[in-house]
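$ ./design --mode recover --in tokens.txt
reading tokens...
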């Protein structure tokens, strides 16, 4: 059950007799137990918890007081913690007994009499220390911990950065209340990555392949309406150059190439930016250098793609002033690739600055910039060339 998706596990639990289901949940790790209880009906939830032993009930209530996307929401209360006044001899005997009861023993933490986290034990130091020494004397002080209210994504970043197998969770008074293990973090990273991909394209983070159609509709329709508005904005740019299109109909075909290549370039830059934000790889001091780097990428790719398109236009539309048309498209693609790379990187940072998720429908806004920029550059240059009588 603990290896199943919580939604599927909740369905299985719902089909079982209450007493049997409660017994199964009690045998699970506290964090897995709460994950499943989150997806059953409120009535069944209360019945299942009521059937559990008092200790398990207390664990459920303790974990459920924290939002599911925080450190407290993903932690387990099965944590190895020993008092600082214990001797080495007593500690080794205790650890042997605890090893048979606990799921995994990543680290052994040291607490004071008020259960404040004060240190962590090195197994090597413990084994080599004299039997009469206290844990206070051999522990490693100032152990890194996370508050129960910390966002789960920040916890995952911290653990990945420092390569921790587990990290202790403390309350507002620095009392040890739980532990987050690496398998909990891998679940978080998978969940966050999935949500980011869905949000990038305007789908709801909670949407699943098996979600009801009306739930999918509610999650998607708002951003589709926003997308419709941005599409009309791009159409209005084209309408400004209606006369230019009548004079040179071939531009209607090439303008989609310019905007489409810009959209691809923007999506590439945006994917890298969102990943960088998620991993904490970028800070404010690096933004200027980042934009310069992306501008160079856009310029270089614009030159290569633009020259290729220029050659195609020159060969296949020679009789329709292919050389001049190709030159217009070359400049437009070069401009739009720079526009795409810069805006593709900038949009996630702007969304974050405004307090939104950096991935939230970012592709919709990026497409608006590349479409409008591509259409304006192509048709605007054509109108300018015609005014100068070069076309």
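writing sequence...
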């Amino acid at each position: 059950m603990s290896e199943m998706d919580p939604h599927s596990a909740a369905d299985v639990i719902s089909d079982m007799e209450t007493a049997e289901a409660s017994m199964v949940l009690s045998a699970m790790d506290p964090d897995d137990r709460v994950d499943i209880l989150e997806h059953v009906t409120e009535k069944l939830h209360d019945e299942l918890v009521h059937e559990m032993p008092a200790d398990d009930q207390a664990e459920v209530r303790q974990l459920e007081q924290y939002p599911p996307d925080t450190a407290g929401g993903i932690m387990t209360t099965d944590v190895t913690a020993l008092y600082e006044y214990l001797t080495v001899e007593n500690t080794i005997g205790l650890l042997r007994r605890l090893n048979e009861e606990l799921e995994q023993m990543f680290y052994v933490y040291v607490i004071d009499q008020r259960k404040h986290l004060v240190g962590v034990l090195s197994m090597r130091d413990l084994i080599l220390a004299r039997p009469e020494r206290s844990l206070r004397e051999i522990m490693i002080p100032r152990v890194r911990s996370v508050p129960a209210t910390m966002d789960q994504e920040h916890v995952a970043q911290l653990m990945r950065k420092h390569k921790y197998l587990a990290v202790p969770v403390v309350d507002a008074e620095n009392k040890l209340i739980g532990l987050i293990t690496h398998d909990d973090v891998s679940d978080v990273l998978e969940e966050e990555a999935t949500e980011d991909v869905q949000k990038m394209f305007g789908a709801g983070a909670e949407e699943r392949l098996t979600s009801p159609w009306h739930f999918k509709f509610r999650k998607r329709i708002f951003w589709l309406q926003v997308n419709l508005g941005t599409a009309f904005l791009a159409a209005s740019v084209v309408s400004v150059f209606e006369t230019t299109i009548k004079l040179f109909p071939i531009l209607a075909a090439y303008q989609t190439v310019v905007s489409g290549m810009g959209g691809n370039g923007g999506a590439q830059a945006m994917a890298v930016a969102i990943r960088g934000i998620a991993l904490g790889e970028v800070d404010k001091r690096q933004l200027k250098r980042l934009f310069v780097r992306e501008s160079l990428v856009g310029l270089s790719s614009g030159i290569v793609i633009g020259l290729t398109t220029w050659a195609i236009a020159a060969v296949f539309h020679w009789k329709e002033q292919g050389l001049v048309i190709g030159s217009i498209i070359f400049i437009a693609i070069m401009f739009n690739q720079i526009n795409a790379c810069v805006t593709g990187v900038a949009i996630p940072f702007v969304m974050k600055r405004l307090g939104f998720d950096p991935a939230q429908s970012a592709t919709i806004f990026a497409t608006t910039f590349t479409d409008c920029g591509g259409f304006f550059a192509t048709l605007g240059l054509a109108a300018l060339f015609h005014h100068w009588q070069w076309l």
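exit 0
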